[in-house]
Design goal:
Radius of gyration: 16 Å
Shape: globular
Helix content: 25-40%
Number of domains: 1
Oligomer: single chain
Strand content: 15-25%
Number of strands: 6
CATH class: Alpha Beta
CATH topology: Rossmann fold
């Protein structure tokens, strides 16, 4: 059986993109340049971010982000069955959003499950040396990135230095 050649990520025509980086405040902040780089590559795309509900306010109103998708990490504390029920509902609602491209910036089992269950035609995850089981590392239908995730990995080219955030803001 012949395989169709895979479109390079830099040329992939995504219209609906989801980032998965649900927790760790510092990691979320360090991932924001990736969001900006992807927005520059896909200026017309709808971009959403799966984030722990306690950090959702950090990302709301970000100019490069269209929506946040809150994830309740502590839902399992109310019991195993209820936690699994809530997680299953989250995964169903996430899949119903029909993302073309899902980018797993976390590289853990939970984010890998989210990525696999997204239904996205193109899934970008961490390289095999990242945390998590090998069954969630990218295969032929997904793209492989090396950690740390950089604008180069996300867009296929580095942003021009003039496009980097160099504005010091208003002087007081």
């Amino acid at each position: 059986m012949l395989r169709r050649p895979r479109i390079p990520l830099a040329a992939y025509p995504a219209r609906r993109i989801a980032f998965i980086k649900p927790s760790a405040l510092g990691d979320i902040i360090h991932s924001l340049p990736v969001l900006t780089a992807v927005r520059r590559r896909y200026p017309e795309a709808y971009i959403a971010w799966v984030v722990n509900h306690s950090y959702e306010a950090l990302l709301q109103d970000h100019p490069d982000l269209d929506a946040t998708i809150p994830f309740h990490r502590g839902a399992a504390q109310s019991g195993f069955l209820k936690g699994m029920w809530n997680y299953g509902n989250f995964l169903r609602r996430f899949r119903e959003q029909h993302f073309d491209l899902v980018i797993d910036l976390q590289g853990l089992l939970r984010s890998g499950v989210m990525t696999v269950n997204s239904g996205a035609a193109r899934r970008v995850g961490s390289a095999p040396h990242a945390k998590g089981p090998p069954c969630f590392t990218p295969t032929s239908s997904r793209s492989r990135i090396s950690m740390p995730f950089t604008p180069w990995n996300a867009t296929g080219s580095w942003p021009k230095p003039s496009a980097w955030a160099t504005d010091p803001g208003p002087s007081v």
